């Protein structure tokens, strides 16, 4: 049987954590033959640590055959020790009266500390996924704080946007979501993301031809996907959690186990592809094989797409400029 791998999860007592940990432990992320050790991080606050204890009791009570160890931590330096995978979910939410700059600064603080801890103690091959918002910029900060780890090991979660876009396309065309290939989401995990179905097929047919409605793309599809998080908060009174956890599972599983040529979306440090400045943490269409992702190359960027990409890029470079002095 396989040697256990270490999976660190931060914000483990939060809502996404509650929807995520049980699925990791049951083998949905890394495969039904891969034993895991969970290294869970929460803030030192007594309430959070108690809540974490409760989650651990429930994990124990599932008696998952693949779950061979569970640890509770309040310090990233111990939580990230030798970790092979790190899902950075915990972040500082925007409080009442908090300005955007305060939010960026509070998160810059968290992700600088966590990036340094990963740099110091994690496996040299650690695969890092940042979920906590602002996800792309937090991933950028962690990456910049970990100079001894390969930059490519740091990623941000755009998969929820990708899955949301796929679901909207399936419902518009009246076909099953499983039939969709070659969907791309460019840019920031924010309402500026650009979900792009120009190359997509569903059951082998061109999505663009099937829908054949530029106004729907611009006025319905993009705003619906971009504002889906807000729509869920309005309906549920809480932000998306199960769908976010599901996207995190999809992201890590595909990165670790491969996509068999299928396109997925990951936020990754740019290598300059499509004119995005190097190191900007940008959503790209990728394929994964052998534990590595590869950007889908050679896609034509038309005028409308370029405009959308420029807009989301501008937002990201502004965010990065806003935290530069903190790095
Ligand atoms: P919750 O507030 O339910 O849970 C967050 C948990 O993180 C809390 O238990 C808190 O104590 C902990 N935490 C805070 N700072 C920490 C630190 N420095 N170290 C360890 N733990 C820490 O939020 P939840 O709904 O679980 O969402 C978590 C994050 O995901 C938020 O930042 C949220 O904005 C973000 N999201 C990102 C999405 C994406 O697609 N990238 C979608 C869903 C979600 O909105």
Automatic annotation (TrEMBL):
Ranges of residues in domain Lactate/malate dehydrogenase C-terminal: 159-324
InterPro entries in alphabetical order: L-lactate/malate_DH, Lactate/malate_DH_C, Lactate/malate_DH_N, Lactate_DH/Glyco_Ohase_4_C, Malate_DH_type2, NAD(P)-bd_dom_sf
Reaction catalysis annotation: (S)-malate + NAD(+) = oxaloacetate + NADH + H(+)
Binding site for NAD(+): 11-17, 107, 114, 131-133
EC number(s) reported in the record: 1.1.1.37
One family name in Pfam for this protein: Ldh_1_N
Binding-site residues for substrate, renumbered to this chain: 94, 100, 133, 164
Coiled coil segments of this chain: none
Active site, renumbered: 189
GO molecular function annotation: L-malate dehydrogenase (NAD+) activity
Source organism superkingdom: Bacteria
Enzyme type, top EC level: oxidoreductase
Lactate/malate dehydrogenase N-terminal domain span: 5-154
This protein's UniProt keywords: NAD, Oxidoreductase, Tricarboxylic acid cycle
Described purpose of this protein according to its UniProt entry: Catalyzes the reversible oxidation of malate to oxaloacetate.
Family statement drawn from the similarity comment of this UniProt entry: Belongs to the LDH/MDH superfamily. MDH type 2 family.
Record-linked HAMAP family: Malate_dehydrog_2 (MF_01517)
The protein's name in its UniProt record: Malate dehydrogenase
Source species of the chain: Pelomonas nitida
């Amino acid at each position: 049987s396989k040697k256990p791998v270490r999976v660190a999860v931060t914000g483990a007592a939060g809502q996404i954590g509650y929807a995520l940990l049980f699925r990791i432990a049951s083998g949905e992320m890394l495969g039904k033959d891969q034993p895991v050790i969970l290294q869970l991080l929460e803030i030192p606050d007594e309430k959070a640590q108690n809540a974490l204890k409760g989650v651990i009791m429930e994990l124990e009570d599932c008696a998952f055959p693949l779950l061979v160890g569970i640890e509770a931590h309040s310090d990233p330096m111990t939580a990230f020790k030798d970790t092979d995978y790190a899902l950075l979910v915990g972040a500082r939410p925007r409080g009442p009266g908090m300005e955007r700059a305060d939010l960026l600064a509070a998160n810059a603080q968290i992700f600088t500390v966590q990036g340094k801890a990963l740099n110091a103690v994690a496996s040299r091959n650690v695969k890092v996924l940042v979920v906590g918002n602002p996800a792309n910029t937090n991933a950028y900060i962690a990456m910049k704080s970990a100079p001894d780890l390969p930059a490519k090991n740091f990623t941000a979660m755009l998969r929820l946007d990708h899955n949301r876009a796929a679901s909207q396309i399936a419902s518009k065309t009246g076909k099953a979501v499983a039939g969709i290939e070659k969907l791309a989401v460019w840019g920031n995990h924010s309402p500026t993301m650009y979900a792009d179905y120009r190359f997509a097929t569903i059951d082998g047919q061109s999505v663009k031809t099937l829908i054949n409605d530029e106004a729907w793309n611009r006025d319905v599809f993009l705003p619906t996907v971009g504002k889906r998080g807000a729509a869920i908060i309005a309906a549920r009174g809480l932000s998306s959690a199960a769908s976010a956890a599901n996207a995190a599972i999809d992201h890590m599983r595909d990165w670790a186990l491969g996509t068999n040529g299928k396109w997925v979306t990951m936020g990754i440090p740019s290598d300059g592809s499509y004119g995005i400045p190097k190191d900007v943490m940008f959503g790209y269409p990728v394929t994964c094989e052998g534990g590595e992702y590869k950007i889908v190359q050679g896609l034509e960027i038309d005028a409308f797409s370029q405009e959308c990409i420029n807009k989301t890029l501008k937002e990201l470079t502004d965010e990065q400029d806003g935290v530069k002095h903190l790095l």
